[in-house]
Amino acid sequence: MNYGTNHFEMRHTCVHYKYKIRKSHVDKAIDLVQKATEEDKNKNFAEALRLYEHGVEYFLHSIKYEAQNERAKESIRAKCVSYLDRAEKLKAFLKKGTSKKPVKAGESSSKKNNGNSDSDSDSDDPEMKKLQSRLGGSALIESPNIKWDDVIGLEAAKEALKEAVILPIKFPHLFTGKRTPWKGILLYGPPGTGKSYLAKAVATEANNSKFFSVSSSDLVSKWLGESEKLVKNLFQLARENKPSIIFIDEIDSLCSSRSDSESESARRIKTEFLVQMQGVGNDTEGILVLGATNIPWVLDAAIRRRFEKRIYIPLPEEPSRTQMFKLHLGSTPHNLREDDFKILGKKPKGKINFSQLNLIYLTTFILFARYSGADISIVVRDALMQPVRKVQTATHFRRITGVSRTDPNIIIDDLLTPCSPGSPGAIEMSWVDVPSDKLLEPVVSASDMLRSLATSKPTVNDEDLKKLVTFTNDFGQEG
Questions:
Q1: In which domain, by residue range, is 434 found?
Q2: Tens digits of per-residue pLDDT, 32-70?
Q3: 78 plus 156 within the same structural domain
Q4: Domain boundary among 284, 312, 340
Q5: Sheet holding 411-419, edge to edge
Q6: Where is this region: Disordered (predicted)?
Q7: Which of 111, 203, 281, 303 is the most exposed place for a label (fewest CB within 10 A)?
């Protein structure tokens, strides 16, 4: 195979089939393998190996998060296998440290030289390399850039994760003898409370650790016996890249309670998980398994036991809700005061004084006990659209003075903003008649927020909350 032209073939193939892949990671991968082939030709084998492996990581990342067409994924996987094969030959050559040249690109590694075969190449398992290349896309190669401070509240969960991930790396002498870091942490709670967001913070803060983010689609295969091999190879990759973190989102889809009616393949996946997480002879030192689920009560009891820390990620309390409203509103122009944010963050305690609340407030308070962080973000996004709706439905506009959009030092006195027909200076017109550079939309107000709260319903119901509280009382701890 001519490795010097592979990157051109890849680009041509993707254009020919009109694959809808965002260019960023694919282009990075193509640039890296192009440089790798150049270094390979110049006999800079160590640098070529590094570039090949880095390029394959970007290709696999694009398969998992960007590629939509199945044919595109298969095309990229085929290229990855070729580059990985070349990388393995270079790695074997560098490991032996001989003066012999590595096997040429495209040649079979089993080809004999002077009657002696390359034992390192012969011992390679092509099936294992194929499975590991499929799992390679689960490794994050770019930090999500989410810090601990970006996670509002959830102090107990953050402290447990620091104990398991950050402190053992920074202060290894603290974890000697019987004091060992946590090997398994389960984050559970209602949807939208920040479980996956916490995992992203771990991936950012644990910059010395390899972070594998996997889902059921990464580990389930239609081929008999391949799913449990994928689980085994995932943990093998983690052991080869210690310290490492395996994050399994929606782990309930893989590790629900075993029963007589389940399929044999599902049972084998759970058995392999049990063995790899805490089986006899398996090294779990330096590996943290981080799981997340909305329905922890369906997990198999043996899987639940292997998660030593089970932390409840609850719905946000009043201070956290107040802070979330501020965070999601950001720098968007608004006239909300600090008291308005406090009102938005409140929920009723005890008896409600109906005489002091209007209908919108009453609706808000009754439902607000079940709002998650994701629900609040949707409420704010809807409130941010309220000024746009005012512009769209307005029948009259009036001229006002305001700051130029291009230069804040320039004041413009002929901007147009929507108004009621009875307002002084009202001009009958619609948004279609307003020049694009003359529109000044209304700022977000407290009434916009309350209107969105009244129309946006929470995604969590009382029945699920009761189940989560029961599970916490039996097996978990508050986050």
A1: 318-459
A2: 888 888 888 888 888 888 888 888 777 777 776 665 566
A3: no
A4: 312
A5: 411-419, 396-403, 427-428
A6: 99-130
A7: 281
